[in-house]
């Protein structure tokens, strides 16, 4: 405990002769030295020493009123090379004290002996005994010590002038009220010899004698004492010293804080008002700028290398072996293909993992196909459909079609097994609107067999809504209007073109549930309890409770010809069959369905190409492998392209040494056709991992045409997809002749209407609904997705979809005769993957998301008012909820614009960021989509769908309608109002109101995700201000550089009205200080570099990393899927961390 002696008055000399109680220091035998020099009258504040002062040899008294920091002498430990008697002879008459009075830090003044040697080092040795010395009164002082002390603000540079005695010493004093020390002339430095100026050649040695010291009554110095010593003093009430000390500390820091605040404001005013006339300083090139420009150049080079490596012949060969046999999920044939793909990935050097699940599947009785028959009143029976398709063509085509009888069988998975008889009702496409037309016309479906055509919605929705209305069975056919549009013109279909022949039928699933029906929410592993049953699924209409089958339009026309009811008078209900379309008929037909469910094993295969710097971030490419028949188009065109993409990536990596920054993961899914089962089980098992690691999932289900792209995606990816499409040549020679040189050109030509009003740079993009494996990634865990296809113009329809005619002959002669179509789409697929995997800043666009949210809200408002939800909720209540929702979208838009503007400047290289800021930006971009996930599901009946924006519509899952969280229950409300069930309608109205809450909550979560991005933007604003530009553009408006940061501060305040303006202003101030303080920037940069170096080490801890030259194959690492192994593979080239070509220099900077 430190105490100022000047705060106390000593007792009389008699009382003071008692020993002081001082802390002991157990250190012993420590040698110290000090050097003192004289004859200098100038203080050098930048030097680490104090020159001495000489004054007349007069008595100096220190008044009680003086207050100053007393200079002290530091004693430093040094070796003693010579005996002290040789170097420092004692002044005659002086006594060298082995001990001093008490071991406190005594700031005494030393006497200089002008006859002593010029330099010496004095040893003060600790002794175990406590010696006592008497200090006599009297003597004169010859020192200008008081001159120094008159400057109350004077500070001696550390480490000079502090003498520390670390021994138990004691002594007695006589105590005059002032110091009276003769012949003390100077206060000296204690620096080592190397710091002492050469001009100071008269360094003197001092010892302490009794006459050198007298004790003052009030002396301004520092003394270390224990609280026990308080009994030797008086004049201070108990506890007052602590209070005064705390008060002094508070006042001190308050004054300092006030001064700093005034200085900051003054600096801000000066900087803000000064004219920007100075010549801008040359900007420093930071690491980010170097990396960014190198990445752009390298990305272009690698993109070109990848494009050149594609070989259409490899894809053709893959499709041939993939399509050799029927390979329905859960069969031996399909499992054999999965094993083959696993070997392919292994041979390419990927890190391979497979996941096996036990799921509920459904199969037909191939020996007893489904049939439709009619018996007249005379019991003359006719088979309207025998449940099989015809073999067409000759030669190789006929051979591929006729080598397995199972290819011909027409069936629908999970249809209820059984036989039903009834009259027929035609329900057009079987959409909700179509069934409502029948309801309004009082056409009942009870105990009827419903005839519907493919198109407009998911086949399971057609059957489900018919079953809910009491139908006995459903027949689905493919009308020539969609599947053979030129039939009436030239009567030509497959194999002359891609149009479906008259007995072709589309197979498919009727499961209204994603994943294994027996294990909702959990992966179908052995340890998981089967909570679902087939019976429960059928009761809940998640599986059909009635028989159903598909047929060709050649059989459908027979049914229409039997119908004798009222003719269809709605144009959109008429198809292209050469017959009369009628609503009903009296003829009784019989539907006989033979199928059943069984549990089977399925298998996914995952191959990971490990990234170089962020291996725990995954860019995922996927396609399913199972097919209804041979599946040369769906899915084998996509599977063959996926395999070639993996080969191209590993080949280019091996030849160039390039490795993407992030990992690229190739996924081959099983049982997609049954209901996205393989990908759903994978997402359920790896959900926690995927939420942290997956950046994007890019899906190619099939490639069924050669003219234009079909794109389903989220707004974040619009522009990245456009950029990739611009880099790939168009594969169709006829389109190239028309000037459509790239995939982008063909896309924009055939589908010009884009998703963003007023922005013609983005062609048509559809919302991600359902229909393929991308669905679970977006709707369940909030991973941005793309579903990419290529279609044929002008009809844009996949007419041979799920038919027996998908064989290798079809792909080679009708879809990709040049061998370039699959390669072109694959090149775009891989280029997009490379861009996302290798860019410093993930190429997402938040502003586009904000624009689409605003559009979606407007569309929803129109629909809800059409359903009269506003009246049901009350106009005021509805208006208030819409107001809140629109305000949230407005704030989302404001933050998105601000943040995206800054991100674009960073991405374009106009502004630099640090490594940590780069990761901050990427974290924001990665988590935007996840912000829209509602953990408990959009509403109870659809808890398996959790995305507030992109969840499939309950009655039309293919459509890509948005805001099912509100529109689904609104539709149910309208349905129950129409049938007069007010109680159930009120229940659904409450679900609608809760949907408003959930949707706004999701948007608010996204806003909060971007909040930290605004803080980043403030830092960039400082760069804007200090960039030295005479004129800048802010939101397209020219703004003088001097005022740009203030304009942007206003924009920030408008974008974030809930935040404090003072908070924003303080951010600007901090930025100003940061930008103007070079040493601070250097310190921050050093700390960031150090921390960024630790991160890769933390990531690598616990993982296996092999040495270069190892023969280890990634393909053999079967159990490391969930870890981030950095192992390298000699099959595609080792990463040389010292090689610029392999980005080793970049890795070294980051790690």
TrEMBL record:
Keywords, alphabetical: Membrane, Transmembrane, Transmembrane helix
Domain Transferrin receptor-like dimerisation residue range list: 882-993
Polar residues: compositionally biased ranges: 136-151
InterPro entries membership: PA_dom_sf (IPR046450), PA_domain (IPR003137), Peptidase_M28 (IPR007484), Peptidase_M28B (IPR039373), TFR-like_dimer_dom (IPR007365), TFR-like_dimer_dom_sf (IPR036757)
Regions that span the bilayer: 246-272
Region (Disordered): 108-161
Compositional bias ranges of the Low complexity kind: 118-135
Occurrences of domain Peptidase M28 (ranges): 604-734
GO molecular function terms attached to this record: carboxypeptidase activity
Residue stretches making up the PA domain: 420-509
Protein family membership: Belongs to the peptidase M28 family. M28B subfamily.
PANTHER family: N-ACETYLATED-ALPHA-LINKED ACIDIC DIPEPTIDASE (PTHR10404), VACUOLAR PROTEIN SORTING-ASSOCIATED PROTEIN 70 (PTHR10404:SF46)
Protein name: PA domain-containing protein
Upper lineage: Eukaryota, Metazoa, Ecdysozoa, Nematoda, Chromadorea
